[in-house]
Amino acid sequence: MFFFKRKFRSQFRSTIRILLALVMLSSIIACDQPIIGPEEPARENVEVWWSEGYYPEETNAIRKFIDEWSEQSNVAVDVQFYSEKDLTQKAESVMNSDETLPDIIYGYTLDFSLVPTFAWNGKLVDTSDIIDPVQDLFMPEALESVNYRNDVEDRRSFYAVPIAQNTIYIHYWRSLLEEVGFSEEDIPENWEGFWEFWLEVQSALREEGQEVYALGLPMSTAATDTHYTIEQILQGYDIQIVDENGELTFNDSDLEKLTEILSQIKDFYENDYIPSNVTNWTDPDNNISFLSRETLMTPNPTLSIPGSQRQNPSTYKEEMGTIEWPNKVNGEPMEYITSIKQLILPEGAPQTEKAQDLVSYLIQPEHLAEFNEGSQGRFYPVMETILERPFWNDPEDPHVYKTHQYFERTRPSYTVFNPAYAEVEARGVWGNALSRMVEEDVSPRDSAEKAREEIEQIFEEWE
């Protein structure tokens, strides 16, 4: 009996040990397995990413109309404002990830490189349902610029919504001209005479003891202004790099013209007609240089320079001027390269249908007009009806009123025809060409040939 009890106890203890070991093993295995719980509910509010306006009136206008739509539709909207640099970085990152996408994105530089690429790769919602009901209100050029090719679906369609547009203007100090006996009427309209005029005025001002540079031409890779200034100069020489079929057409004749352009700019730089630090400029720096009266004339892709002086009527209306570019080298009037500010809806975002309704509300002419005017005229409207408003028709405004002349003759950016061209700006091809000449003493011819090689390489990568 005693032996039986001992044997029973021993077996009982062994069984307990085995059971405890099994429990511990189960716990370890369970810890290695993912915890499966209820799926996270889809976001119900509309999420908007918007570039912070240069002026409070811009931001206030868009916030006002988003709030109105939210109240009327009983749909919550989470609108997040970002600096333009942060917005483009976030947009590029989220569109190439598995993260939840915002329903709407609007930025001032998205059209430079991101939108054409997103559309090409099939990552954007077709916006025809938004545009078609109001298509007749938009300027044809604005619609042309948001008609992108979707390579995934092998078709073209609207993959963005035009909100505003701009081109590259020329601003100058009327007051500095007057100090040495010149006026706007003295500025030549022919290409060569136009550029020589500013050099002559610089010399006159230097004789009066003023350390002023004739030209505020950006020459850095960091400034998008460099790309658009050179693009407009290329237009002046009738250099066509991409045709309407998206084919690269940069030929030997164009190479000769580009060499001439680079040689002229290098001459300006080496003869002290351009500030020496232009190779380090970022986008605000030509504004800063001009507003500090370091430069006599500067190109700029928006009206932000005069817009910043609206609170000082004397400076805005009397001392500062905006003029057209000179006629092209062949004597014909200049065509201006437009940049369309665009709103996009990422494909796969949770609330596309609601987002489409919100965008339709935002682009009603009276709403878009208030947003455009909130930019202080920095951007030009994309609807003819908006141009009928008094803001755009004051002949006493020497800047906004002048913009009408620019938009009489325009062409879209090459990115509309082929998104590969977006890489020309993204890689700073023109900034590299300029920097090579002045920092590495590369000849204009060699620098032009290198730029051509870089462009050809980009297009080969996209084939």
TrEMBL record:
PROSITE patterns: PROKAR_LIPOPROTEIN. It holds the Pfam family SBP_bac_8. It comes from the Bacteria. Keywords: Signal. The keyword Signal applies. Residues 1-32 form the signal peptide. The keyword Signal applies. Residues 441-463 are annotated as: Disordered. Residues 441-455 have a biased composition (Basic and acidic residues). This is Carbohydrate ABC transporter substrate-binding protein.
